[in-house]
Design a protein that fits this description.
GO terms for molecular function: methyltransferase activity. The chain has seven helices and five strands, in the order ααβαβαβαβαβα. The chain has helices at 26-30, 35-47, 64-76, 90-101, 117-124, 144-153, 165-168; strands at residues 52-58, 80-87, 108-114, 129-134, 154-159.
Length: 170
């Protein structure tokens, strides 16, 4: 019989405990400049007695902000969360779909579509989302069709860059 106490062991290296993230990728999401406004808007909707929320993320990339927003909405008490991410990059949409597959909460519906942003946002106009997340690069602000599609796709738009005052008028 082998004496297990005599076996060589690996030395234990003490490490600082790592912060536990609520969502894979949420570390990037909470550093997104839009996150404080997203969290505040979700809290405002929930404070108004809303139980359902619909969020569209135009140019969603790998989906970290949208996934974090969905989990945050659930933590606030929303019982029906519908999220749609839109991007033109097959690799990023693939990563977003893989991350969404790990979300097992039946109250959260996630879809990530590889499509043209303007066409997808125009399709959202019939039933506008509560929140539209948009990077809104300065170049996009020079495209009136992009601005119009983003504004019509949701009740509140949260962008990285706000358009100049002369471009806000519709």
């Amino acid at each position: 019989m082998t004496n297990v106490h005599a076996l060589a062991t690996r030395p234990h290296v003490a490490t600082a405990p790592r912060a536990k993230l609520a969502v894979p990728g949420s570390k990037a999401a909470i550093h997104d400049p839009r996150w404080p406004r997203v969290a505040a808007q979700l809290a405002s909707l929930r404070g108004a007695g809303r139980h359902a929320v619909r969020i569209v993320d135009a140019d969603c990339g790998a989906g970290s902000l949208l996934l974090h927003a969905a989990r945050h909405a659930r933590a606030l008490g929303f019982t029906a969360i519908e999220c749609r991410g839109i991007d033109g990059s097959p690799a990023l949409i693939g990563r977003a779909r893989a991350a969404a597959a790990r979300c097992v909460d039946p109250a959260i519906g996630l879809s990530f579509d590889l499509t043209d942003m303007i066409a997808a946002l125009e399709a959202e106009q019939d039933f506008p989302a509560d929140l539209v997340l948009w990077h809104g690069s300065p170049a996009d602000h020079q495209r009136p069709e992009a601005l119009a599609a983003v504004r019509a796709a949701g009740q509140v738009t949260i962008a990285d860059h706000e358009p100049a005052a002369e471009q806000v008028a519709t």
